[in-house]
Amino acid sequence: MKLSFSAEDEQFRAEVAGWLQDNLKGEFARLRYRGGPGDEHTYPEERKVWEQKLAEGGWTCVGWPKEYGGKGCSIEQQVIFFEEYARAGAPGRVGHIGEGLAGPTIIAFGTEAQKQKYLPGIVAGTELWCQGYSEPGAGSDLANVKTKARFDEVRGKWVLNGQKVWTSLAHESDYCFVIARTDPESVAHRGLGFFLVKMDQPGIEIRPIEQITGTSEFNEVFFDDAECDAGDIVGAPGDGWKVAMGLLGFERGVSTLGQQMQFQNELDDIVALARENGAADISDIRQRIARAHAELKIMRYNAMRMLSGHSVSDGSLQKEALIYKLFWASWHRSLGELAMDVMGPECEILEGAPYELSRLQAMYLFVRSDTIYGGTNQIQRNIIAERGLGMPKEPRPALK
């Protein structure tokens, strides 16, 4: 992908930046730079209102096809939108799982009835989604899920039983897409289904998981005869793995550029603090800041290369996408450590409970999870070796 933009793209950039400048004020002014990873607990109700404000302006689902309520933006324009959104300090998106994952997956793999039922609420910013993938025994090894789904022929319903964990924003969500085993005798990636489940129903219990930041972005979700309609399985029973892998391709899509701009905001805060408190005079700190800057640029260039082969239809990406998660997670963890060193020893001391963390303190604590969620670093290295380099797979028990 070219690293420059056309005159039309730059006009679009000015439109995005202008709208954000005009609207991130008044009741929304205090949302600036809030609600990102590690800060998800802040202003949840106000950020829900912000989602609907975005929708009113036509700024939700910018990359979706127009026939499904999106803006139909090109890849270049999507990159611009996510960069300008982060540059303006606009708040973390409570609708990002629906807009970036559930919606594109339903568009790519769902029926027309599913598109009509679920997409309008995502576009309008009125219906929020969460992701039911990980389980206590199936984190990075997603194919080991134990949650079961059986079809009740009499009632025409799918009935789900099991447990999911590390479910971001489950307590704020209206729906959850759930990977469950439709064939109780199946193993690994066989016999899975991809279900669209309403959260507000009997049979679903949500328990918050308190993090070291003192907040609870993540949750455990228990399904005890929870239900969804016969038409709420995406694809056929047994297609769950294919749909789930398609979704993961969308996860590595254009929103990664917005993520990098958020990283840039954090790095800028660290640089400003280093200049203010004198840490910038320490040669080691200067070297680490320079390295963080250079590696963030490398991250951007690789993302642009990665997106040049992005398929909007099914989320597939080039092999360059395989290294992205490992690179940014490790980089971001190191940035948290740099932030602590720039703040100095006093950053490890707070007056007492309830603890009020600064943004950089919260960032440092949260980034410890970056190398775990979404596939651990160890799993990412296996994926790079096996899928990217064609190396032999690790020995696994034979499937029955």
Task: Offer a few descriptive terms.
400 residues; alpha+beta; Butyryl-Coa Dehydrogenase, subunit A, domain 1; Butyryl-CoA Dehydrogenase, subunit A, domain 3; four-stranded antiparallel beta sheet; globular
Which overall shape is indicated by the principal axes computed on the Cα atoms?
A: globular
Spatial gap, N to C terminus: 45 Å
CATH architecture of the largest domain: Up-down Bundle
Number of DSSP helical runs: 11
The secondary-structure class comes to alpha+beta
Give the uncertain stretches in residue-range form: none
Would you report the number of β strands? 7
The CATH top-level class label of the largest domain: Mainly Alpha
Question: Can you write the helix and strand succession as a string?
Answer: HHHHHEEEEEEEHHHHHH
CATH superfamily of the largest domain: Butyryl-CoA Dehydrogenase, subunit A, domain 3
What is the CATH fold-level name of the largest domain? Answer: Butyryl-CoA Dehydrogenase, subunit A, domain 3
C-alpha-based Rg, rounded: 21 Å
Number of domains: 3
Mean pLDDT: 90
The main pleated sheet reads as: 4 strands, antiparallel
Helical proportion, percent range: 40-55%
